[in-house]
Amino acid sequence: MTDTAHEVADLGLARAGIRRVDWAEHSMPVLRSVRERFASERPLEGLRVAACLHVTAETANLLRALRAGGAEVALAASNPLSTQDDTAAALVAEYGVSVYAWAGMDPASYDRNLVTVLETRPHLILDDGCDLVNTAHADRPDLLEGVLGGCEQTTTGVIRLRRMSAEGELRLPMVAVNDTATKRMFDNRYGTGQSTIDGILRATNALLAGRTVVVAGFGYCGRGLAERARGMGARVVVTEVDPVKALDAVMQGYTVTTMEEAAPVGDVFVTVTGNRDVVRAEHLERMKDGAILANSGHFDLEIDLAALERLAVAVDRGVRDQAEEYVFADGRRVLLLSEGRLVNLGAAEGHPAAVMDMSFAVQALTTEWLAANHADMGPGVLEVPAGIDTEVARLELASLGVRIDSLTPGQEDYLRSWRP
């Protein structure tokens, strides 16, 4: 029996979890190299880290790196459906991480676990969706004492942090890990694009070729999703509120229209906006029989679930794993995936390990930088130093066996000078 504090589903699953974590590590060479350096240099010695992240094998490898660097780590889940119970058990039993997470936890347990990890009195916070920071500021400001700063790795979380900062409410330096070029390109575009399609197919076994997929939101996540849906033969319709992003979608050859006009023609609807009530009652009332609803935005607010319940005269919650069929009065049916939560983690396994390798390497190196430089920072949302992003990209290219050119001295001089 482990002495590490925890609340997980079953520690007996640890052996299976270790195998899962090791399998993911094979595709995470950049993070592995960071962990090896951390183990020799111990840059996080004596620091406590509170994390709210998806409890997956990829996350486990990030936390292994932090532990190798000397940190004590307490982890809560950032989504009630995304926890891999075997990974949670392995983190506790094998890697010495205090985990408070299990698959399918109720909202009260979810909120309690956030407070539990904050009560470890962390020096650093790793957040996914701003839940830890929000909980500490709104409900338990006493737990902010001693927190030096933190990192946020989602678009939704960075939006919330910037609003807190603009209103003068943010009391910590928080680094926007989400906003690095490698994170947006690999995690948001390639990771979300592939894993969302994966989740939809696992939950429905639907054929996308020849069907109309409506993508709500054309940020990095929406672009990746639209590309992959089109690559599988789907007709892709994009809805947007941002004129620049909408124009980008038009110039890439997608049909761009309103959700009102897309509702009666779409076969599959996926929201990736970071906002709420993107699919509302007036849209649900116009959808065709058999329409599929999925969300890959952080919170389960993008589809108006209350309206869906109100319109339905019957609900079959066991039609398929991670799928619920809502029947309307006129006999039309719509299929909701993963309770309107992140379909790529609820119905699938999230981003491939090779994608999270880069994202979590940035996260680990930014945590190291924050620990070393926090004394020079004030409250607010900070950018990741460009050198970290460049170093991670360099390590990834090296792991792929890709060589690139270097600037010659003459080229460097030319770029530094304005003179002809």
From TrEMBL:
Class of enzymatic activity (EC top level): hydrolase
Binding site for NAD(+): 154-156, 188, 217-222, 240, 275, 296-298, 344
SMART domains reported in the protein's UniProt record: AdoHcyase, AdoHcyase_NAD
Listed pathway(s): Amino-acid biosynthesis; L-homocysteine biosynthesis; L-homocysteine from S-adenosyl-L-homocysteine: step 1/1
Keywords: Cytoplasm, Hydrolase, NAD, One-carbon metabolism
Family matches, as Pfam families: AdoHcyase (PF05221), AdoHcyase_NAD (PF00670)
Record's cofactor remark: Binds 1 NAD(+) per subunit.
Coiled-coil regions listed in the entry: none
Cofactor (UniProt): NAD(+)
Main location: cytoplasm
Segments forming domain S-adenosyl-L-homocysteine hydrolase NAD binding: 188-350
Residues that, per the record, bind substrate: T56, D128, K183, D187
Catalyzed chemical reaction(s): S-adenosyl-L-homocysteine + H2O = L-homocysteine + adenosine
Protein location: Cytoplasm
E.C. number: 3.13.2.1
Entries under InterPro entries matching the protein: Adenosylhomocyst_ase-like_sf, Adenosylhomocysteinase-like, Ado_hCys_hydrolase_NAD-bd, NAD(P)-bd_dom_sf, S-Ado-L-homoCys_hydrolase_CS
Function according to Swiss-Prot or TrEMBL: May play a key role in the regulation of the intracellular concentration of adenosylhomocysteine.
Similarity annotation: Belongs to the adenosylhomocysteinase family.
NCBIfam families the UniProt entry points to: ahcY (TIGR00936), PRK05476.2-3 (NF004005)
Protein's name in the database: Adenosylhomocysteinase
Organism of origin: Nocardiopsis tropica
Gene: ahcY
